[in-house]
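protien #1 (seq + structre)
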Amino acid sequence: MNYFLAIDIGASSGRHLLGYIENEQIVLKEIYRFENKLTSINNQLCWEVDKLFSHIIKGLKQCVFMGKIPKSIGIDTWGVDFVLLDCDDNIIGNTVSYRDSRTKGVMDDICTQVEHREIYNKTGIQFMGFNTLYQMSSVDSKHKKEACSFLMIPDYINYLLTGVKANEYTNSTTTQMLNVNTDDWDKDLLEVCGISKDIFTKPQYPGHRLGNLKSSIQEIIGFDCEVVLPASHDTASAFIASVLDLEDDGVILSSGTWSLLGTELEKPIVSEISRESNFTNEGGYNKRFRFLKNIMGLWIVQEVSRMMDYKYSYAELADLAREASDFKSVIDVNNERFFVSENMIEEIIEYCKETGQDIPQTTGEVCICVYRSLAKSYNQYIGELVSITGKTVDKVNIIGGGCKNELLNELIEQETNKEIIVGPVEATGMGNIIVQMLSMGEIAHLKQAKNYIRNSI
């Protein structure tokens, strides 16, 4: 039996998932889990990439302990964040998170230099203040002059494992610096944010076999295998694992810290209405495009939980919300005030006050407010997607960790009046492993993989 390892790192945790085929199903086994959190360094919110890599090594050692050596491994993470390396391959400055405030106001400044429409026509990517284009603009000019390499977070991890520097396509598209027509970095936009095109490599597509582990890594973990580029942006991997395919009349909702709602297309839609509606065309597997909307997602509930010192599990918060289901106030989940807040509960209460709605008094009322607001936003954006694409939508495939929230699923069904298909839960890990299996010849084609996914859920 051949094993494949997905290392899936999200904004709050990471996991190592071993995958294999059994009875025409893709079986996933979590073998290692670790925490991922932001830390403040010199008043910047930063990722601890050294700590992340140490956890990756520990998880790889677990494969040896279990006696299940993977044929290949693949890394996926969130999008937009990156490192700059100097000519000695050391990280320059901090590995700053997209949630840091350094990009405040930068998007507006850039759009005074390059017209909003021109940026969208070049990239097809929606305007979000933390996109890499604006992050790069805010990097110290001295650091940009010192830079010899640009690597996104999964690219950098791959480099540590293999010694090979490569930019992966799906994550590169999230930067708003990649030209949607050439699949290469847009020189004009790079010039605007003050960085040389020489430090970038033309992105490699998912399925590219990067190479074997470095000998130094082999000695530490006790085995060798190939590193394959999956769709290294976690949402791109998750969409691969949807039961829906191009010909199906439905939308995919990747439900987690962020909610990504959309569909897969063979060609991007870079129209005036899609720009005005702020839809994005992110790269997917096999040169498909994920035409979707980024929505704040369960981050808001995660922050509510944090404000309560994690007194309740997420399942318990959903139960409390169900008990308060008569509470009808809603918030605009995409309002910037909910992106980063010192006290998310107070933020929700203040929003309800300011908009003349009933004020939540209990934990359950706070949570049902968030869940109902998410469901209403999904319905709104499905309507916008239909009007832009002309696509018929009669079903919603909810994937990712958030699909375990039965209350939210029910609210989505009520608001959208669509058929709800739930799963897979570990969509990102499954999509990661599917690309590895396709690359390594374990699966013949994507249609076969889709059949395995349907069998698996």
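ok now protien #2
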Amino acid sequence: MNLSDSQTGGAVPRRVSAMEAVFGHLRSAIERGEYAVGDKLPSEAELCRTLEVSRPVLREALRA
């Protein structure tokens, strides 16, 4: 049987990379006002611990 013929087959949820998840989290936090304009973000080490990601992932998200 072809899976595309299945009744349960539908749109497959898109996987989100760790970088995209961190980027989305930080962007949402800024939009919600958790970080005001001009505020400094927590240190890389603190963000890595809080978000449970590596420094390269965090740095890539911050660059984005």
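Helices lie at 18-31, 44-51, 55-63.
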